[in-house]
Amino acid sequence: MKYTKKTPCIDCPFLQRAERAFTDHRLQQFASGEFPCHKTAKAEDEGFTATRQSVHCAGALIYLEKRNAPHQMMRIAERVGMYDRTQLDMEAPVR
Q1: What gap in Å lies between CA 81 and CA 3, rounded to an integer?
Q2: What share of the chain is helix, strand, coil (3-state, %, to 5)?
Q3: How far is CA 43 from CA 30, 82, 89, in A?
Q4: Does the pLDDT at position 46 exceed 80?
Q5: What is the end-to-end Cα distance of the chain in Å, rounded?
Q6: Closest to 65 (Cα-Cα) out of 37, 79, 95, 85
Q7: Would you say 88 and 8 are in contact if contact means Cβ atoms under 8 Å apart?
Q8: How far is CA 78 from CA 29, 61, 83, 88, in A?
Q9: Average pLDDT over all residues of the chain
Q10: Which of 12, 62, 65, 69 is deepest in the core (most CB within 10 A)?
Q11: What is the pTM of this model?
Q12: How many C-beta atoms surround the C-beta of residue 26 within 10 A?
């Protein structure tokens, strides 16, 4: 999965004004591991599945960084130069 998105898309479930509101518990479940942006994932009956071309959800990255709680793949991607948390739009209205 790529870590190149810097800002959440308009339909991101992590936005404060998200059309479909999820509980904080559910958002934490989404963000607990790699979570593809729905615009770059394959839609299936039970949700979305990442493909080789999928990009990690920027909203989830910002959500975790605001809590100082990056998941393990974020840490690994940062160490190998695939992810730079300083490039995220931390002013985005993410919960």
Answers
A1: 10
A2: 35, 15, 55
A3: 16, 25, 26
A4: no
A5: 23
A6: 85
A7: no
A8: 21, 12, 4, 13
A9: 93
A10: 62
A11: 0.91
A12: 11
